[in-house]
Amino acid sequence: MRKPRAAVGSRSRCRKQASSQEGREKRALSSSQAKLSAPDGLARQQEEVRLQAPVSPYHLFGDTAEVTVFRKSLLSWYDREKRDLPWRRRVEGEVDLDRRAYAVWVSEVMLQQTQVATVIDYYNRWMQEVNQLWAGLGYYSRGRRLQEGARKVVEELGGHMPRTAETLQWLLPGVGRYTARAIASIAFGQATGVVDGNVVRVLCRVRAIGADPSSTLVSQQLWSLAQQLVEPARPGDFNQAAMELGATVCTPQRPLCSQCPVQSLCRARQRVEREQLSASRSPPGSRDVEECAPNTGQCQLCAPPTEPWDQTLGVANFPRKVSRRPPREECSATCVLEQPRALGGARILLVQRPNSGLLAGLWEFPSVTAEPSGQHQRKALLRELQSWVGPVPATRLRHLGQVVHTFSHIKLTYQVYGLALEEQTPVAIVPPGARWLTREEFHTAAVSTAMKKVFRVYEGQQPGTCKGSKRSQVSTLSGWKKPSAGQQVLDSFFRPHIPC
């Protein structure tokens, strides 16, 4: 009789814990929802009504048998071919749901716009020592939001992760629609679909969607398709399989269609076959039967008439390539200010960027926005230096060269200056937001790749540096390659112990 009692007590405790967790989520969720104003909700409803435009069944899955075949074929392929990735091993072997969800959360944040091969090393180090944070992945604010979310889980949610996609998205800062659904499906088994870049490519090809995938209408249809296709019994595996298919088989440039488990359902593949047949029996420029089912007007999921079919691309005609604006060009003047003879060793001045915008929260050399002509660069840069350390010898400010670094939307040219304070003095006291670091500390601080390029130019110009060495030659080139993942510095958000 004792064992049944213990089981009942255990189930009772589990129910109480689940109820407590649900209560915490509801209270936090209602508090977050209360912040939305009524006009915002009305605007959302109007937008949803506007987007409920009819689309051709040709681009949808109307046959339940097709959906069943798609699920079975994709999951069978995934079970055979899936990559052995560290976050998958952790999730499969982790019994604690909160730890499992955290493992998924970290991996999904790291994988945002970063290749799997780059992430693996960072993920292993992160999970081994949570006080380490990555800087080499780029997109530096991701780490800060992850830290904020983890604090909220501990301080406001009793150490328990929200269990549904809705509550994950509402309650955790930095967790958007995709990340919330990835965590909910993989960690908690919620039957909710996900759409990332790989899934967009797979769905656009499988259903021959040629319209702009970044448009609101197409995005809504893709999310609807993902939700329709997800396997309720294995939602996490299905979502990972769809992403895996796009990453390894249905690739952007050279898709391996012969290895695709769902090629029999792929309308892009069918379109290629029809185009090849049409080209062999029809005069150049003529069209075969319309591939999209008849509907009134121009189909909103087809490519516009101004985007003709490119025979050389094949299935890579889908998804439609979105034209990107070239990065805007900007110029900045930056100075490496050093105390070579400071007591305790040479020190370099770094200042912290604002907590929002480009390279948010990272450390850099004092910099000012400058005109390409550079007529007022020196004066503006001297004023910036003086705002941090007081009077500096203006005659020692030397222009050393330039570094060009291209971000996703900005091509930034850094005019590199150097200034050495030769007197043997204690390290100067600086206001909050600035630090004097040794060279060793600089290489472990949260600085961007661009600042490392700047510092290489500075090092190459210092007395005693071998100008003929490979290191010096690389340091003066604006096209210096980004270090490997293992060489990237760790971010200092979790490392505040760097001495001032």
**How many β strands by DSSP?**
7
Computed structural class: alpha+beta
**What best-fitting shape do the alpha-carbon axes yield?**
globular
The total of helices stands at 17
State the major sheet: 7 strands, mixed
- Runs with pLDDT <50, length 5+? 1-11, 34-40, 45-51, 130-139, 285-290, 464-500
What is the residue-mean pLDDT, rounded to a whole number? 78
Cα end-to-end separation: 65 Å
Q: Name the helix and strand elements from N-terminus to C-terminus, one letter apiece.
A: HHHHHHHHHHHHHEEEEHEEEHHH
- Percentage of residues in DSSP E strands: 5-15%
Rg measurement, Å: 28 Å
**What share of the residues lie within helices?**
40-55%
Explain what the structure shows:
This protein has 500 residues and is of the alpha+beta class. The protein is 44% helix and 9% strand. It has helices at residues 2-33, 38-51, 64-81, 86-93, 97-110, 116-128, 141-156, 165-171, 177-188, 197-206, 216-229, 235-248, 267-281, 377-389, 439-442, 449-460, 470-475; strands at residues 328-339, 347-352, 363-364, 367-369, 398-406, 410-420, 434-437. Strand 1 and strand 2 (347-352) form a beta hairpin. Helix 8 (165-171) packs across helix 9 (177-188). Mean pLDDT is 78; it is low at 1-11, 34-40, 45-51, 130-139, 285-290 and 464-500.
